[in-house]
Amino acid sequence: MKVMVVGGGGREHAIIKKLKESKKITELFALPGNGGIAADATCVDIGAKDIDKITAWAVENKIDFAVVAPDDPLVLGCVDALNAKGIPCFGPKANAAIIEGSKIFSKNLMKKYNIPTAAYEVFDDMDKALAYLETAPIPTVIKADGLALGKGVVIAETREAAKDAVRSMMADKVFGDSGSKIVIEEFLTGPEVSVLAFTDAKTVIPMVSSMDHKRALDGDNGLNTGGMGTVAPNPYYTKEIADECMKTIFEPTIAAMNAEGRPFTGCLYFGLMLTPNGPKVIEYNCRFGDPETQVVLPLLESDLFEIMQAIAEGKLAEADVRFADKNACCVIMASKGYPSAYEKGFEITVDADFAAELYVAGATLKDGKLLTNGGRVLGVTATAPTLEAAIAESYKNVAKVHFDNAYSRSDIGKKALAAKA
Ligand code: AMP
Ligand code: GLY
Questions:
Q1: Which residue puts its alpha carbon closest to atom 4 of ligand 2?
Q2: Is the C or the N end of the chain the one with fewer CB within 10 Å?
Q3: Measuring CA to CA, which residue among 297, 305, 324 is closest to residue 386?
């Protein structure tokens, strides 16, 4: 079968490497892919948000199945457009992708269906938001309603910082229209867990849990990034907590979306916080996480493509979904300066004795050389019987990848190890 993957980051590289293991796939394409993905799929120079071109290309090239990985095309209706041409897809339609596309939608959904989440207020008027902040409990959390490249959340430790965040979103429009409406919510505490789940809107099968490291610098300092590294499974996420989440969060969310006439199919990402009052939803994403995918899929033992097909056919209950009883660690190698300004165009070289998975996120091929081309450049994933060994292996192999201005955190997995001790 001819399969295409829409997207071009580390997550898409991990999806593509896993799909390549499937005997059913004869040709694999990435739109647009990147210089590293080019080693594993045929890259086609069409941007992930260009729905019309993606659809026309898929029809012209007789694509049998599409995987739409990033949030933007999902929210923009890429799956709807491909389905309309008779191409089955993995990923939600736009009316379900809104669970990530609008924080106000997702907060209201959780309130209506009693799914545990932080208490919140919604504002479309800046003066009302500022007035509310005069007496709101501090710290508080300010969120832009729409997509903001994972950066639309401000944790404000003081009243002034909270007001500044509101002004920058609503008056200065730092996130464009995404910030014209905002959510101000209760500050929660506790360990964070990412749970990606396969669902066909009838059955929900959580994948192995993971822990992201969102801040740029060691010790969870510095700016929020797309994610600097991940480990799986997440030691805080015990069997008991998993059972509770299934009952209070996962199944109720799938049922709520069905009740709203927005059946969700694909990968639903639950960003959870294990608070003293139980697990609560911090955010939903309508897709695989990045870099969670880079630790979750290497642990998947079954055929990813068969699972995706089963979901598209509404037969997930019959699918074989098994994860290895092992640990994985992904360390992101970024361009120094990320998530602020950074230089790019440096050659990437990998030692011959590199022995891990390399998932390329931001790189381009030029004259046969792989050059850095993004903030997050690549991820190095190792799997091992213990978390300790996975972390050590991952870092050992990070040392075998070279480019100027490379930066990675040195403490990925440290918190998880401490939790296990
Ligand atoms: P998000 O973009 O929604 O994932 O938020 C980014 C990060 O902000 C999360 O990973 C949390 O660490 C933090 N965060 C979001 N909402 C809250 C909240 N209500 N309380 C405490 N921290 C939060
Ligand atoms: N790693 C967080 C996300 O994919 O949104």
A1: 289
A2: C
A3: 324
Co-location of 217 and 169 in the same domain: no
Q: To 10 degrees, what angle do helices 159-170 and 126-133 make?
A: 170
Residues 149 and 171 placed together within one structural domain of the fold = yes
On the 0-12 / 13-18 / 19+ scale of CB atoms within 10 A, 295 is buried
**What pTM, to 2 d.p., does this model score?**
0.96
- Test site for ligand 1: of 178, 273, 277, 284, most ligand atoms within 8 A of the Cβ: 273
Residue 35 tokens read as: 């210089």
Q: Does residue 300 sit in the same domain as residue 266?
A: yes
What tens digit of pLDDT does each residue of 264-317 get?
999 999 999 999 999 999 999 999 999 999 999 999 999 999 999 999 999 999
Candidates 121, 117, 86; CA nearest to 99 is 117
Task: Outline where DSSP puts E strands in 63-139.
Answer: 65-68, 89-90, 120-123
Please give the residue range of the domain that contains residue 311.
192-318
Protein residue closest via CA to atom 5 of ligand 2: 289
Kindly state the tokens that stand for 341: 């300004």
Question: Could you report how far apart the first and last alpha carbons of the chain are, in Å?
Answer: 47
Please count the structural domains in the chain: 4
Residues 309 and 266 in one domain: yes
Strand arrangement, sheet containing 278-285: 204-206, 192-199, 266-275, 278-285
Which of 265, 286, 318 is the C-terminal boundary of a domain?
A: 318
pLDDT tens for residues 158-201?
Answer: 999 999 999 999 998 888 888 789 999 999 999 999 999 999 99
Ligand 1 atom at shortest distance from the alpha carbon of 152: 2
